[in-house]
Give the backbone structure.
Amino acid sequence: MIEILSTGAVNSVQDLGRVGHLDAGVGRSGMMDAAALEIANLMIGNEREAAGLEVALFPFRLRFEADTVFAIAGADCPAKIGDRQMPCWWAMNAKAGEVLTLGLPHSGARAVIAFKGGIQVPPVLGSRSTDLKSGFGGLEGRGLNRGDRLPLSQTPARLLKMDGGFGVDPSSLRPPADSDQPIALRVLPSAEFDAFTDEAVSHFLKSDWLVTNDANRMGYRLGGPELSLIRKLELFSHGIMPGTVQVPPNGQPIIQLAEANTCGGYPKIANVIEADLWRLAQAPVGTRLRFAMTDRAAAITALRQERDFMAEVAASASLMRGWM
């Protein structure tokens, strides 16, 4: 069991999401930075999809009520367990009564915390993720409050033999961000790409786009040049997915994210490839984005590289846990 000591209302229980229900109007939800959750879970010997915590408001504090093993990943935020400092992308023991504190990130926007055995809230439609928009799943369908207590696996965790723990280096897939440069996002053309003017396409690909204050788990509204259609379109609502870039009548794009609507009628100019969705998860308000067109083969290659890295993490972490 863990107890939440300080938090923000958007911090929540998440796993890899609720799949297979879009036709019933049920969105995916899940961790915004899904790859970070997978890595954190693999480090401590969990199944990839085990539920953890997504922390987007800081400072965040929790108390462990039993000895266990945990890992943090995602945003580069100062972290401390008891009186021990720990870096990001790190797995470590926690003793009963110790407090984990996460401070404001140096870079990135969302921290991920995984716990041995995962958080054991009841699954809803096959997932323990919180759907904050619709109010179900996770802990009573809401974000975390001070005083909340979350159950972990009842199987006693096998602690690491080295108190200092161990970590992974994700820089081969996640090079350090340059604050002076916009975040690069690879995109594929979407269904209505050809319905936009040449000038709009040029603006879309050559301009910097600002993540506005209207940004949450549903999606990010961007600020930049107006994107115009060749002619007005009347579209039926149709299926959309995380990463879909829609353009409403005001010409300012919206990127759908983890709690994306399952359908919508705005024209779609592009889709951010799956391997780059973590970049959006780690983009705080005020970040500049830049889109770059790619193709299906490159998008698949990027996913394969991510999967290969996960396999290396799993193998290395298993070896480390065997030594400790």
